[in-house]
Predict the 3D structure of the following.
Amino acid sequence: MEKTALVVVDGQNDFLDVRGTLLVHDAASEARKLARATFEYPELWDGIFLTQDSHYEFDIAHPSFWTDNTQGPVKPFTKITADSVRRGQYTPVNTNGVEYSTDKELLYVLRYLDYIESKGMTHTVWQTHCVMGTWGHKIHPILKQMTNIWSNTRDKEVMTVLKGQNPNTEHFSAFEAIMPNSDPRTQLNETFVDELRGYETIVWCGWAGSHCLPATMLDGMKYLPYQNHIGLSDVSAPVAGCKMEHVKFFNEATKAGARITPLHNHIRTAL
Ligand SMILES: [Zn+2]
């Protein structure tokens, strides 16, 4: 019997709840739809994996890492290029937990920004989000209830996958950081890959459909080339203003061999 895994990317309060710091519009209603389907058809999934964005307050993608040329904090959603740092428009600040000197930190940050720009990305400073130990980091109650009931019905455990704990690199994908370093938490999560190898089909969904879901699913397709990959088009809302990235993701995933389909369609074909 073929087995199917469901991977829900970053279904956390900070993204799904109106009080969250980085609310993704429609994510909560999409989560509700997924939960309803799972209550009704628990047999859809033989395994459920929940990824969790997991940061410290001090993080390269949070305002606390940076000052601008007035010595004030940078505003959320600021795009910081290597050039703007070289010109002194933005400066990384040293904080507890970072052992190297300011000069070394600056060199590292420039290398990091150059690297991600060479990959066609620009560094974004977000609103502080998913700080470990806070309410915003927790899995949203709708998904918590969904997985609790599924777990009891199927007598299986839900696996949690943390990402983002290293403050020196953005970590969109649940498999590895944008720029892995000597910290094992930034390197390929082989346990996650090995666990997913136990399934023939992997269904990917979550938020945001413009950032962490694409990075995770496309990495998943790269590291699990023998699995069938399905992306849920209506459980993957993007960050506001990032619809183009969402469309680009669907195109890229389709080109790489995935099927992108709405949840109801998946249910119809799977049952
Ligand atoms: Zn994050």
